[in-house]
Design brief:
alpha+beta, Immunoglobulin-like, 2 domains, four-stranded mixed sheet, four-stranded antiparallel sheet
């Protein structure tokens, strides 16, 4: 059926699609954003970030002001391939820390392709709302 609709045949279409996808994922300047989740607990926050195929030697976790930055690179080994679906490249993600997060005592652990960052919380008194007067012009 496809041959009737597409004169180049099924194998040529598949090859063209595969080549287009390969080029799309091999863009040198592209930065991948890892999937993550942030959960809130009474005394800490837990940030979980998926980084399959990366080890501690390929990852960096650092503070930049009020942001927690996770950066790394998954490098491709040069070899003959018959199938290439794994995505390689640089990962980068910056997370704005909540106001009650402590910058001291942050811990990071990597297990089974998931980076877990434990961010301690400090008890702060709740700030009352501040009313701002509106001036008439």
């Amino acid at each position: 059926m496809l041959e009737k609709l597409w004169p180049f045949g099924r194998s040529r279409v598949r090859k063209a699609v595969e080549e287009a996808l390969e080029k799309a994922f091999q863009d040198v300047g592209e930065v991948l954003e890892p999937l993550s989740e942030l959960s809130e607990h009474e005394d800490h926050y837990l940030l979980r970030v998926e980084v399959p195929g990366l080890g501690p030697e390929n990852l960096e976790v650092r503070l930049e002001g009020d942001q927690l930055v996770i950066e790394g690179e998954k490098r491709e080994e040069k070899r003959a391939k018959h199938l290439a679906e794994i995505v390689y490249g640089r990962i980068y993600r910056a997370y704005l820390l909540p106001k009650d997060a402590k910058k001291e005592g942050i811990e990071a652990r990597l297990a089974k392709g998931v980076l877990e960052v434990r961010i301690p919380r400090e008890k702060r008194p709740e700030e009352p709302p501040v009313r701002i007067p509106i001036q008439e012009s």
